[in-house]
Protein backbone atom coordinates (compact mmCIF):
# COMPACT_ATOMS: atom_id res chain seq x y z
CA UNK A 1 0.00 0.00 0.00
CA UNK A 2 1.36 3.43 -0.96
CA UNK A 3 1.59 5.96 1.85
CA UNK A 4 0.45 9.42 0.75
CA UNK A 5 2.49 12.20 2.35
CA UNK A 6 2.02 15.96 2.65
CA UNK A 7 5.06 18.13 3.37
CA UNK A 8 4.29 21.27 5.39
CA UNK A 9 7.23 23.67 5.66
CA UNK A 10 7.65 27.35 4.78
CA UNK A 11 11.18 26.70 3.46
CA UNK A 12 11.04 25.78 -0.24
CA UNK A 13 14.45 24.12 -0.08
CA UNK A 14 13.35 21.86 2.77
CA UNK A 15 10.20 20.87 0.91
CA UNK A 16 12.16 20.17 -2.27
CA UNK A 17 14.77 18.13 -0.40
CA UNK A 18 12.18 16.01 1.40
CA UNK A 19 10.20 15.48 -1.79
CA UNK A 20 13.37 14.29 -3.52
CA UNK A 21 14.22 11.92 -0.67
CA UNK A 22 10.73 10.46 -0.44
CA UNK A 23 10.40 10.23 -4.21
CA UNK A 24 13.02 7.50 -4.15
CA UNK A 25 10.75 5.15 -2.20
CA UNK A 26 8.29 2.93 -4.04
CA UNK A 27 6.11 2.81 -0.91
CA UNK A 28 5.70 6.57 -0.46
CA UNK A 29 4.08 9.21 -2.66
CA UNK A 30 4.34 12.93 -1.94
CA UNK A 31 0.87 14.14 -2.89
CA UNK A 32 1.14 17.76 -1.78
CA UNK A 33 3.06 20.58 -0.16
CA UNK A 34 1.99 23.37 2.19
CA UNK A 35 3.79 26.56 3.14
CA UNK A 36 1.92 27.06 6.42
CA UNK A 37 -0.34 25.23 8.85
CA UNK A 38 -3.57 26.51 7.38
CA UNK A 39 -2.69 25.18 3.94
CA UNK A 40 -1.81 21.83 5.52
CA UNK A 41 -5.19 21.59 7.25
CA UNK A 42 -7.03 22.52 4.06
CA UNK A 43 -5.09 19.93 2.07
CA UNK A 44 -5.88 17.17 4.57
CA UNK A 45 -9.56 18.10 4.63
CA UNK A 46 -9.58 17.60 0.87
CA UNK A 47 -8.66 13.97 1.52
CA UNK A 48 -6.13 11.40 0.41
CA UNK A 49 -3.32 12.12 2.90
CA UNK A 50 -1.97 9.51 5.32
CA UNK A 51 1.02 11.32 6.87
CA UNK A 52 1.91 14.99 7.33
CA UNK A 53 5.52 16.03 7.84
CA UNK A 54 4.92 19.17 9.88
CA UNK A 55 7.33 22.03 10.42
CA UNK A 56 6.53 23.93 13.60
CA UNK A 57 7.59 27.50 12.93
CA UNK A 58 5.45 28.66 10.01
CA UNK A 59 3.50 31.84 9.21
CA UNK A 60 -0.32 32.18 9.26
CA UNK A 61 -0.79 29.06 11.40
CA UNK A 62 2.11 27.36 13.15
CA UNK A 63 2.66 23.62 13.31
CA UNK A 64 1.31 23.25 16.84
CA UNK A 65 -2.06 24.78 15.99
CA UNK A 66 -2.17 22.86 12.72
CA UNK A 67 -1.41 19.58 14.49
CA UNK A 68 -4.24 20.16 16.95
CA UNK A 69 -6.62 21.01 14.10
CA UNK A 70 -5.64 17.92 12.12
CA UNK A 71 -6.00 15.55 15.05
CA UNK A 72 -9.47 16.92 15.75
CA UNK A 73 -10.65 15.72 12.32
CA UNK A 74 -12.84 12.58 12.12
CA UNK A 75 -10.16 10.59 10.27
CA UNK A 76 -6.87 12.32 11.13
CA UNK A 77 -3.57 11.61 9.40
CA UNK A 78 -0.40 10.70 11.24
CA UNK A 79 1.60 13.83 12.06
CA UNK A 80 5.39 13.79 12.29
CA UNK A 81 7.01 16.96 13.59
CA UNK A 82 10.02 18.33 11.71
CA UNK A 83 12.57 20.11 13.86
CA UNK A 84 16.19 21.17 14.06
CA UNK A 85 16.48 20.44 17.79
CA UNK A 86 15.60 17.19 19.56
CA UNK A 87 14.50 18.90 22.78
CA UNK A 88 12.89 21.99 21.31
CA UNK A 89 10.06 23.51 23.36
CA UNK A 90 7.85 23.57 20.27
CA UNK A 91 8.41 19.84 19.80
CA UNK A 92 7.32 19.14 23.36
CA UNK A 93 4.13 21.14 22.88
CA UNK A 94 3.33 19.51 19.54
CA UNK A 95 3.84 16.00 20.89
CA UNK A 96 1.74 16.75 23.94
CA UNK A 97 -0.96 17.95 21.54
CA UNK A 98 -0.97 14.56 19.87
CA UNK A 99 1.70 14.48 17.14
CA UNK A 100 2.81 10.92 16.43
CA UNK A 101 6.53 11.58 16.60
CA UNK A 102 9.31 13.80 15.38
CA UNK A 103 12.17 13.86 12.89
CA UNK A 104 15.26 16.00 12.92
CA UNK A 105 15.61 17.81 9.60
CA UNK A 106 19.10 16.38 9.14
CA UNK A 107 17.91 12.78 9.59
CA UNK A 108 19.48 10.45 6.96
CA UNK A 109 17.16 9.80 3.97
CA UNK A 110 16.74 6.08 4.66
CA UNK A 111 15.75 6.81 8.26
CA UNK A 112 13.09 9.30 7.14
CA UNK A 113 11.49 6.69 4.90
CA UNK A 114 11.69 4.12 7.68
CA UNK A 115 10.18 6.54 10.20
CA UNK A 116 7.14 7.18 8.00
CA UNK A 117 6.59 3.45 7.59
CA UNK A 118 6.88 2.91 11.34
CA UNK A 119 4.38 5.63 12.20
CA UNK A 120 1.86 4.24 9.73
CA UNK A 121 2.34 0.83 11.38
CA UNK A 122 1.76 2.34 14.82
CA UNK A 123 5.34 2.03 16.00
CA UNK A 124 6.91 4.55 18.39
CA UNK A 125 8.73 7.52 16.88
CA UNK A 126 10.37 8.82 20.05
CA UNK A 127 13.49 7.83 21.90
CA UNK A 128 13.04 7.05 25.62
CA UNK A 129 15.06 10.19 26.41
CA UNK A 130 12.68 12.45 24.50
CA UNK A 131 9.68 10.67 26.04
CA UNK A 132 11.10 11.30 29.50
CA UNK A 133 11.66 15.00 28.70
CA UNK A 134 8.11 15.32 27.44
CA UNK A 135 6.59 13.57 30.44
CA UNK A 136 8.61 15.74 32.81
CA UNK A 137 7.55 18.92 30.96
CA UNK A 138 3.86 18.05 31.01
CA UNK A 139 3.64 16.64 34.52
CA UNK A 140 5.71 19.39 36.14
CA UNK A 141 3.22 21.92 34.79
CA UNK A 142 0.17 19.87 35.74
CA UNK A 143 -2.00 20.44 38.84
CA UNK A 144 -1.71 17.89 41.66
CA UNK A 145 -5.18 16.46 41.06
CA UNK A 146 -4.04 15.11 37.66
CA UNK A 147 -2.72 12.01 39.46
CA UNK A 148 -6.16 11.15 40.85
CA UNK A 149 -7.76 11.70 37.44
CA UNK A 150 -5.14 9.54 35.72
CA UNK A 151 -5.60 6.74 38.24
CA UNK A 152 -9.34 6.75 37.58
CA UNK A 153 -8.72 6.53 33.83
CA UNK A 154 -6.23 3.69 34.20
CA UNK A 155 -8.69 1.62 36.24
CA UNK A 156 -10.65 0.91 33.05
CA UNK A 157 -7.69 -1.04 31.65
CA UNK A 158 -7.49 -4.79 32.06
CA UNK A 159 -4.43 -6.17 33.86
CA UNK A 160 -2.87 -7.16 30.53
CA UNK A 161 -3.61 -3.77 28.97
CA UNK A 162 -2.00 -2.11 31.98
CA UNK A 163 1.15 -4.18 31.47
CA UNK A 164 1.26 -3.18 27.81
CA UNK A 165 0.61 0.48 28.66
CA UNK A 166 3.49 0.52 31.15
CA UNK A 167 5.78 -0.98 28.49
CA UNK A 168 4.63 1.67 26.02
CA UNK A 169 5.39 4.31 28.63
CA UNK A 170 8.92 2.97 28.89
CA UNK A 171 9.46 3.49 25.18
CA UNK A 172 9.30 -0.16 24.15
CA UNK A 173 8.48 -1.06 20.55
CA UNK A 174 5.68 -3.48 19.69
CA UNK A 175 8.22 -6.22 19.00
CA UNK A 176 9.96 -5.64 22.35
CA UNK A 177 6.64 -5.72 24.21
CA UNK A 178 5.68 -8.94 22.44
CA UNK A 179 8.88 -10.66 23.57
CA UNK A 180 8.72 -9.36 27.14
CA UNK A 181 5.06 -10.24 27.67
CA UNK A 182 5.09 -13.46 25.62
CA UNK A 183 2.48 -12.51 23.05
CA UNK A 184 2.34 -11.92 19.31
CA UNK A 185 2.96 -8.50 17.78
CA UNK A 186 -0.61 -8.59 16.44
CA UNK A 187 -1.92 -9.07 19.98
CA UNK A 188 0.22 -6.19 21.22
CA UNK A 189 -1.22 -3.94 18.50
CA UNK A 190 -4.75 -4.96 19.48
CA UNK A 191 -4.09 -4.16 23.14
CA UNK A 192 -2.59 -0.78 22.21
CA UNK A 193 -5.65 0.08 20.10
CA UNK A 194 -7.89 -0.67 23.10
CA UNK A 195 -5.62 1.37 25.38
CA UNK A 196 -5.80 4.37 23.06
CA UNK A 197 -9.61 4.24 23.13
CA UNK A 198 -9.90 3.76 26.88
CA UNK A 199 -7.38 6.49 27.73
CA UNK A 200 -8.62 8.82 24.98
CA UNK A 201 -5.06 8.95 23.63
CA UNK A 202 -3.95 9.62 20.08
CA UNK A 203 -0.33 8.52 20.43
CA UNK A 204 2.03 6.51 22.61
CA UNK A 205 3.41 9.61 24.33
CA UNK A 206 -0.01 10.44 25.73
CA UNK A 207 -0.25 6.87 27.04
CA UNK A 208 3.15 7.34 28.69
CA UNK A 209 2.01 10.59 30.30
CA UNK A 210 -1.15 8.91 31.65
CA UNK A 211 0.83 6.03 33.11
CA UNK A 212 3.32 8.41 34.69
CA UNK A 213 0.58 10.57 36.19
CA UNK A 214 -1.09 7.42 37.54
CA UNK A 215 2.25 6.66 39.24
CA UNK A 216 2.73 3.40 37.33
CA UNK A 217 6.07 4.46 35.84
In short:
This protein is of the alpha/beta class and 217 residues long.
Supply the number of helical segments. 11
The CATH architecture of the largest domain is 3-Layer(aba) Sandwich
Percent of residues in beta strands? 5-15%
Count of separate structural domains: 2
The first-level CATH class of the largest domain is given as Alpha Beta
Give the fraction of residues assigned to helices. 40-55%
Q: Within the CATH hierarchy, at the fold level, what is the topology of the largest domain? A: Rossmann fold
Q: Give the overall pLDDT as a whole number.
A: 85
Provide the structure class.
alpha/beta
Low-confidence stretches: none
According to DSSP, the number of beta strands is 5
Assembly form of the protein: single chain
Largest beta-sheet details: 5 strands, parallel
Give the ordered list of helices and strands.
EHEHEHEHEHHHHHHH
| CATH homologous group name of the largest domain | Response regulator
The rounded distance between the terminal residues' Cα atoms is 37 Å
General form? globular
Strand order of the largest sheet: 2-1-3-4-5
Specify Rg, calculated over alpha carbons. 17 Å
GO molecular function: DNA binding
Keywords: DNA-binding, Phosphoprotein, Transcription, Transcription regulation
Pfam family, one: Response_reg
Protein name: DNA-binding response regulator
